[in-house]
Specification:
The protein has 259 residues and is α/β, with parallel strands linked by helices. It folds into two domains: 193 residues, 2-enoyl-CoA Hydratase, Chain A, domain 1; 48 residues, Lyase 2-enoyl-coa Hydratase, Chain  A, domain 2 (Orthogonal Bundle), CATH 1.10.12. It contains eleven helices and ten strands. The strands form two sheets. It has a six-stranded mixed sheet, sandwiched between helices. A four-stranded mixed sheet has the order 4-6-8-9.
Amino acid sequence: MNTFECILTEKRDDGIGVIQLNRPDKLNALSLQPMVELVEAFEGFDNDSDVRCIVIHGNKKAFAAGADITEMADATAIDMLSRDQFTRWERIRKIKTPTIAAVSGFALGGGCELTMICDMIVASDTARFGQPEIKIGVMPGAGGTQRLTRAVGKARAMEMVLTGDMISATEAYEAGLVNKVVPVNVYFEEAISLAKRVATMPPVSAKLAKESVLKAFDTTIESGMEFERKNFYLLFATEDSKEGMQAFVEKRKPEWKGK
């Protein structure tokens, strides 16, 4: 992996790629530079066949406390349109490898939206989620009105978006936004533990299963079922499907090849 200025990366021996937001003095605010680096890191891991799950985290104080407002304060509508900054968010959304956000402290604005692009979220009991953009005269623009509504429902999403109020990790869990809430001193380890479980699964199956779950958000049930079936049938062309079934019959642990 490349050397970055705003993030740290690690490729572990257990099939996990780790990305850490590393701007503690800015509470990991998502300015242009870290977003450019995040896309490169995510896509680098996604193109590495040895990486079977990606974990992104910040630090105990903040996952990411929103965008860097100084970059937008004097921008015009044409400036924002020309920057087309959300194209980078779409590239992250299209990552095929399963992704997990390990969240502690503030996940606000773009930080909250970045967690929701990920497939699963492990939160510390100190985590706080929110979309406070309305408090500076704008609104969420990287999926906050869409993914949040799908995750927690219209009423809760409306309250968060229209007041800018934060919710606690426990409230986020109860609303269905996060997978689990754990003590702050083990939140990263819990995310890695979950990632290890995913990484032990056949990688082609994991990618197609992820793709199929995400399809449920942008299509009808009929189209989604058709999409699911095609991916199901497609997996019968893989060596791993034959290995998995044979291992089951022989009562042994399968050895995945990712083919």
